Amino acid sequence: MKNKLHFKGVMRSLMLGAAAVTFSCTFTACDNESVDAADPVAEFKAESENGAIIPGQYIVVYKDGAKLRMSEAATYAQRVEMVRDFSKNILAENGISQTNVEQAFGQAIKGAAVKITAEEATKLRQDPRVDYVEPDRIVMLAKPGTGGGGSAGQTVPYGITRVGNGSGAGKTAWVIDSGIDLDHPDLNVDVARSITVFTSGRDAGSADDGNGHGTHVAGTIAARNNTVGVIGVAYDATVVAVKVLDSRGSGSYSGVIAGVDYVAANGKSGDVANMSLGGPVSQALDDAVVAAASKGIKFALAAGNESTHASNSSPARANHANIYTVSAMDSNDRFASFSNYGNPPVDYCAPGVSILSTWKGGGYNTISGTSMASPHVAGLLLLGNIATDGYVKNDPDGNADPIAHR
């Protein structure tokens, strides 16, 4: 099942209008509750900019043989700063001045996000130290919901019942998303290791979730077994917020890569990372996830919500033995109409329609998407090897995905 396709090459360029329709709400959830496999993201398709190219911003990735001279004893912060300085030198040597290095990556991949012109990007591609250059892109979720409110007693969501659960105490899940409600009473959040990649604005300085999406994902993975609220697949596990999406649910591919880079540097073998986000093909994003997975960190990836083949989406298409791409189904084991498909790269199907979980503000919310299916598998990965229990009905590719189970 792990013989997934891994494509290399230049990322497709899309006009903003095309991206707004074709790649809308990728790996996101809608705020409205859906009764069955009806399309819960359709209302956002016309307005989302997910996957749109960020004008004048590029991701530059260096070859392994580039003379970065990194000491094995260097801290992660030092490695990032070395790559930042290296990037500035390469830009200067190519006659590119007055350029901001927006992000630098020092672990999963060696590279940077830089503000340059298309002509300067072409020039950098000719530098023998540069492996490839691709446009940076927008990552955008659907509009956040309201959530809020507490719970008088503990509810077991149907998805948890369907896939099975157990104690995840002592295990760690990294949630690369919109942050996590850091003091939610139903979650064990490692605040000390939680980060935000934002350096300015309301989302800088704290990994707290202003959107709700990341908190929802965290609850499905690991909500506490504490008699209130909901319970997660790997209940009582520790979750770490890696905030790469702001309160609007918006970010950049380079910011997501910075989050993956942080997990690669700070996670350990046996940890699990969940990515309920993504968009059009990005070699840099795929390469970063594969490199992090090579450290023994297991990744659960949402297949995407475009009703198309998942091999057209990153990081869903990324290929490694520790990477698991997940499609979505409803409470009757029917393939969700919005879910991407294709095996490979899809490995498992899991519940993703009308999923109840934790929300920002200490609350709870019911939303839908492959974003909600992926954390079910992330929880199972924390508990050990994944088994299966039947196959999803009505898989559009004719090759039914196995349903993930403990």
Automatic annotation (TrEMBL):
Active site, renumbered: 177, 213, 371
Pfam families noted in UniProt: Inhibitor_I9, Peptidase_S8
A GO CC term assigned to this protein in UniProt: extracellular space
Signal peptide stretch: 1-29
Record domain Peptidase S8/S53: where: 175-381
GO molecular-function term, one example from the UniProt record: serine-type endopeptidase activity
Domain Inhibitor I9 intervals: 57-141
Coiled-coil region(s): none
PANTHER family listed in its UniProt record: PEPTIDASE S8 (PTHR43806), SERIN ENDOPEPTIDASE (PTHR43806:SF66)
Full protein name: Peptidase inhibitor I9
